[in-house]
Design goal:
Layout: H1 5-25, H2 33-45, E1 50-53, H3 59-66, E2 71-75, H4 78-87, E3 93-95, E4 110-112, E5 125-130, E6 133-139, H5 144-153, E7 157-164, E8 178-184
Parallel strand pairs: 1-2, 1-4, 2-3
Antiparallel strand pairs: 5-6, 7-8
């Protein structure tokens, strides 16, 4: 099967910026208390192994492990996975795509897609350059109600939603609001 162009472009872009991106983003959680709070709530709700899909440099995977979660990372970019393995030895990281996870049904107690912890908006944003590197990346923004409806339609119960204002100052400036949706599968009737 031929791989879609957006998958190839995304892999190539993150392979090109892996080391620089990992260095730049390393301390972001330290200045984002609401982000840490969302991850802490998720950690308490997760029951079993957690896949961090789109894990990048592994910082969220490592943070979850620090909260006692049995987390492992999956990323499309082999270079990002290499950085994650070097930065967080002893933590499991695999190359893979969130569009085709190679995981048995029912094997996860949770799934994090942190940078699908998403920018709020209606229009995609295209980037041709990141950190001096030529890339071709599309960032898709969504509305909280839209994501919650998609999760509900897929059989999940939405437990919480949070939309926070963009952090426009500091070392990790944002231009759009950020949103988080926590959802879980309903308990099976006995």
């Amino acid at each position: 099967m031929t791989e879609p162009a957006f998958v190839r472009d995304t892999r190539a872009a993150y392979d090109a910026i892996a080391g620089e991106f990992a260095e730049w983003i390393r301390d972001e959680l330290a200045v984002k208390p609401l982000d840490r709070a969302v991850l802490a709530a998720f950690a308490e709700l997760a029951d079993g192994p957690v896949a961090d899909v789109g894990c990048g440099s592994g910082r969220i995977t490592a943070h979850l492990r620090g909260l006692g979660v049995d987390a492992f990372g999956i990323d499309l970019s082999p270079e990002m996975v290499a950085v994650a393995r070097r930065t967080h030895p002893g933590v499991r990281f695999e190359v893979g795509s969130m569009t085709a996870l190679d995981l048995p049904d029912g094997s996860l107690g949770g799934l994090v897609a942190w940078y699908l912890a998403f920018d709020v908006g209606d229009e995609p944003v295209h980037r041709d350059e990141i950190g001096g590197h030529r890339v071709s990346l599309d960032f898709h923004q969504r509305r909280v109600d839209e994501v919650a409806a998609l999760l509900t339609g897929a059989g999940f119960e939405v437990r919480a939603r949070l939309e926070r204002a963009p952090d426009e100052a500091g070392p990790f400036p944002e231009t759009t609001p950020q949103a988080f949706v926590l959802a879980r599968r309903p308990a099976q009737a006995s």
